[in-house]
Design a protein that fits this description.
The structure holds two protein chains of two kinds. By secondary structure, chain A is mainly alpha-helical. Chain A has helices at residues 3-24, 30-35, 42-53, 56-69, 74-98, 103-110, 114-147, 151-201, 206-209, 221-231, 245-261, 263-266, 275-311, 314-317, 335-341, 367-375, 390-397, 402-440, 446-469, 475-499, 505-527, 538-541, 556-573, 579-589; strands spanning 328-329, 346-348, 356-357, 383-385. Chain A contains 24 helices and four strands. In chain A, the strands form two sheets. Chain A has a two-stranded antiparallel ribbon. Chain A has a two-stranded antiparallel ribbon with strand order 2-4. By secondary structure, chain B is mainly α. Chain B contains three helices and two strands. Chain B has helices spanning 3-33, 35-39, 48-78; strands at residues 42-43, 46-47. The chains are: A mainly alpha, B mainly alpha. At the A-B interface, helix 5, helix 10, helix 11 and helix 13 of A face helix 1, helix 2, strand 2 and helix 3 of B.
Chain lengths: 602, 84
């Protein structure tokens, strides 16, 4: 059976499975639509959370970025897992005890103010929408390869499918579908990694393989990789940091507190039956996430090695990388390169007209590399590989069987769809429940509320799809921006709501607004106002990364600091919260008396 | 808040502090701030600092959450505020 048919079959079968499950478990009421009736155990909830959490950014984009960045890419690994520790310790159990089902509801009640809840809705929408843009970029990549079309067409197809899928199910459908999606995506991620690790190092466990020696050689994979990339002018794989140590530090911190502040993740902890279950649920979620996340660096390193050795035969033979016959002949290009060239995400150009492809860093400052490249008659790098395709192309690069390639396509789609669905649910609940019902039309019927939610989903898909066509960066980079926004706006407000009895509404509102504003200002200066190309205003702030060299993706931690600072300052000069709110905080801190989640506004 | 409530909250904060210190040391400490120092040590083919950033801290995070959940359960029962 040829590759394309196999892909259709595997992807088709996985879709049939999800739709079947969504139909079987479809939501009957608003409460089921949002929180699955509260009757989901910690392991199942953990698995669904993992699928919800691991998006196109984790599945498709992350390992590719790590592959490019080397050691510095570890910020994604630590950032996106370390946040669960914060979530489990600082937020999940308390929000579960509080017993409402949206984040703005908590903020509105704790800070006794509709304005606070409305500000929280604005923060939530900004973060979630940015996140969905990143997903759409990833969906575009997955569908373009799957259908053999351009990535633009891929995004249009993806928009249609995400819409049908999210509107249909609701939380209950989503929870069980996500369990199925987790199983598909984790197999899709680990199976090729095991094959490749076995092939390269003889060790079937990728987590160990990355540290092992190459088959038949007395040198470890990482050492070898370091040597090759340095010789070709790239930064050393195991030590190249992300910008600077400071940038890496705040970037990691932003991702961690962003994780803990992302509403669609927090929402998952409302679906567990007890406070104790909320604590362990975060642990289970992280177990399921870590299976993929600890495999990712192996995928990254091995994909880099495989790519290098495909383009340059001297990598395997230990010959001269700059010898004329080491570089890959254009005529002998493997099929996967041609297939990916069609999507526009892989490009090559024979600049020196020698009929071969040279892949090296032509912007290097290393005089050795420049001299060698000149002596060999190289006229610039001839291959560009979009980081977002590395994972999907990985099994093809390693020449694995067709069913593995098909499985990876299905896994990528599962990851993107499950997260998009979770995010859209968070967006729709914020608009229909917190904004329409909570502020504008308190008497709206259940049916009207559901309808408002579905309209909100449709509108956000269109906006995200449009911006996904001109994404502000790679899928994982865009998603990182969303985390920065959540980190700087929602996380501090929720945390102060639990840990500071005296924090009042003025402080919380001022904090959220200033954190959100300063982060958006910094991000929009780099990426354009609302990510619209051409509206960047870098000159105004003095060039790129003006704040101690911190990149916009990493700025969320600074925004969070500003949020905390402003909140405490304003809190000092305004009057303390009423007695009953202080009692509410005390009640939230102890587990006893946790009730099933209830949706009504108290 | 009554006396036992205050003691419960103090015990909770104590546990949180201990866990967050470990959380910080393995990721921001070994994986970022002192990575060069740790990279001088090699274990299983990995430079140790690189290993903490790409592998180790994640395993430790998982362990930390389960330790927290268990200890927190013990604190709940000690102060008699656990769910039934």
């Amino acid at each position: 059976m040829d590759l394309q048919t196999t892909i259709y079959l595997v992807v088709g079968a996985s879709f049939a499975l999800y739709i079947g499950i969504a139909f079987w478990a479809r939501a009957g009421s608003t409460s089921e639509f949002y929180v699955a009736g509260g009757g989901v155990g910690p392991r199942i909830n953990g698995m669904a959370t993992a699928a919800d959490w691991m998006s196109a950014a984790s599945f498709i984009s992350m390992a590719g970025l790590i592959s490019n960045m080397g050691y510095g890419g570890g910020l994604f690994l630590m950032g996106w897992t370390g946040g669960y520790v914060l979530l489990a310790l600082l937020l999940a159990p308390y929000l579960r005890k509080f017993g409402k089902f949206t984040v703005p509801q908590f903020i509105g009640d704790r800070f006794y103010s509709k304005s606070a809840s409305t500000v929280a809705v604005v923060c939530l929408l900004t973060a979630s929408l940015t996140y969905v843009i990143g997903q759409m970029t990833g969906v575009g990549v997955a569908f373009s390869r799957f259908l053999g079309v351009s990535s633009e067409t891929g995004i249009y197809v993806g928009m249609a499918i995400v819409f049908m899928y999210a509107v249909f199910g609701g939380m209950k459908g989503i929870t069980y579908t996500q369990v199925a999606q987790y199983v598909v995506l984790i197999f899709a991620y680990t199976v090729p990694a095991v094959f490749i690790s076995m092939h390269l190092t003889g060790n079937p466990i990728p987590q160990l393989g990355l540290g092992s020696n190459l088959v038949g050689q007395d040198i470890s994979l990482l050492q070898k990789l370091d040597t090759i990339v340095v010789e070709l002018g790239f930064g050393q794989y195991t030590t190249t940091t992300a910008g600077s140590t400071l940038n890496m530090f705040v970037y990691t911190m932003s991702l961690m507190i962003g994780t803990a502040g992302l509403p669609h993740v927090i929402m998952r902890f409302f679906t567990v039956p007890t406070v104790a279950a909320a604590r362990s649920s975060a642990g289970w979620a992280l177990v399921f996430i870590a299976i993929l996340y600890t495999t990712a660096p192996a995928v990254a390193g091995m994909a880099k090695y495989n790519l290098m050795s495909t383009v340059n035969t001297a990598v395997v033979t230990n010959g001269d990388l700059y010898a004329a016959d080491s570089s890959l002949e254009v005529a002998k290009q493997p099929d996967w390169m041609n297939r990916w060239a069609k999507t526009g995400l892989l490009k090559f150009e024979d600049k020196n007209g020698d009929g071969r492809i040279q892949y090296y860093n032509d912007k290097t400052k290393n005089p050795d590399v420049i001299a060698k490249a000149e002596a060999a008659g190289w006229k610039g790098n001839e291959l560009t590989v979009n980081a977002d395709i590395i994972v999907l192309a990985n099994p093809e690069i390693a020449l694995l069987p067709n069913w593995v390639i098909a499985l990876v396509a299905a896994g990528g789609l599962a990851a993107a769809l499950s997260t998009a669905a979770g995010l859209l649910l968070a967006i729709s609940s914020a608009i229909s429940h917190d904004l329409v019902k909570g502020v504008f039309k308190p008497n709206i019927s259940e049916k009207g509320e559901l309808m408002a939610g579905k309209i909100a989903m449709a509108v956000s898909i269109v906006i995200a799809g449009y911006l996904g066509l001109n994404p502000p960066g790679f899928a994982a980079g865009t998603v990182a921006l969303a985390f920065g926004i959540a980190a700087s706006s929602l996380f501090p407000a929720i945390m102060m709501g639990i840990f500071s009895k005296k924090m009042n509404k003025e402080g919380a509102i001022a904090g959220m607004l200033s954190g959100l504003f300063i982060t958006l200002f910094y991000v929009f200066a780099h990426k354009g106002i609302f990510f619209i190309k051409g509206t960047e205003f870098l000159d105004l702030i003095g060039g790129p990364n003006p704040f101690f060299g911190i990149t916009p993706e990493a700025f969320g931690a600074i925004g969070a600091l500003v949020n905390f600072g402003v909140a405490f300052l304003v809190d000092k000069f305004t009057k303390e919260p009423p007695e009953h709110i202080q009692h509410l905080v005390e009640a939230v801190r102890t587990p006893r008396g946790a009730k099933a989640v209830d949706g009504s506004h108290a | 808040m009554d006396k036992s409530g205050e003691a419960y909250w103090k015990a909770t904060l104590g546990l949180l502090t201990k866990i967050l210190v470990v959380w910080f040391v393995v990721s921001f400490g070994a994986g970022i701030l002192f990575v060069d120092l740790f990279n001088k040590i090699h274990i299983g083919g990995y430079p140790l600092g690189f290993w903490f950033a790409h592998q180790g801290s994640m395993y430790i995070f998982v362990a930390l959450i389960f330790i927290y959940a268990k200890k927190m359960g013990e604190i709940d029962r000690k102060f008699d505020v656990h769910e039934d």
